[in-house]
Amino acid sequence: MLLAHGAGAPMDSPFMEHLSEALERHGVATVRFEFPYMARRREDGRKRPPDRMPVLLDSFRAEVARVRDEVGEDCLILVGGKSMGGRVASMLASDNAPDISGVICYGYPFHPPGKPDRWRIDHFSTVGCPMMIIQGTRDPFGKPEEVAAQGEMPGLSRLRWLDGGNHDFQTPARHPGSQATLIEQAASETGRFIQELLAGSELH
């Protein structure tokens, strides 16, 4: 799985490191990369806003092609990412991308925080492969009641909620779980999703 970072943190942020390690434990090999604006930030230390969507998509598309060349035609390739990275992955999968077999988004930015009138789901119905979103129940980018109010979302195969998690899957101090346990749950859900995809099961 090609795993893309969010808007403000690089591919080796603590969240991305822990998620990649958890996915590996569940049998999911990951490849991380950085979008051009983040690569430039790594070079000179200057923070920049994300590139525009066409640039993000071209960058992601090039990484998929590179990985396909390395692993050959028999390997299943999925795309996913944290927040913005997951959104770009889902848009790439809606753009006639035959090399992509599945999409997994961790903390999907359904809408900007505090702006539940600006939903980012119009492209879901054109995603051409199974897609899963794993979301914390306290995520300001899309909470359970807000998402439920949108009704059925064509193109979204599975939605899993992590109890108590915020946008980074962190939990309140008195919550019985922790960020680490929620990341582990997310990785477990990912592994199950991929196994069912490989088995040709109907995803729900």
TrEMBL record:
Pfam family of this protein, just one?
A: Abhydrolase_11
KANL3/Tex30 alpha/beta hydrolase-like domain span: 1-195
Listed A to Z, the keywords are: Hydrolase
Q: Does the keyword Oxidoreductase apply?
A: no
Q: Which domain of life is it from?
A: Bacteria
Q: Where are the transmembrane segments?
A: none
For molecular function, the Gene Ontology terms on record are:
hydrolase activity
Protein name per UniProt: Alpha/beta hydrolase
Q: List the source organism.
A: Marinobacter nauticus (Marinobacter hydrocarbonoclasticus)
**Source lineage:** Bacteria, Pseudomonadati, Pseudomonadota, Gammaproteobacteria, Pseudomonadales
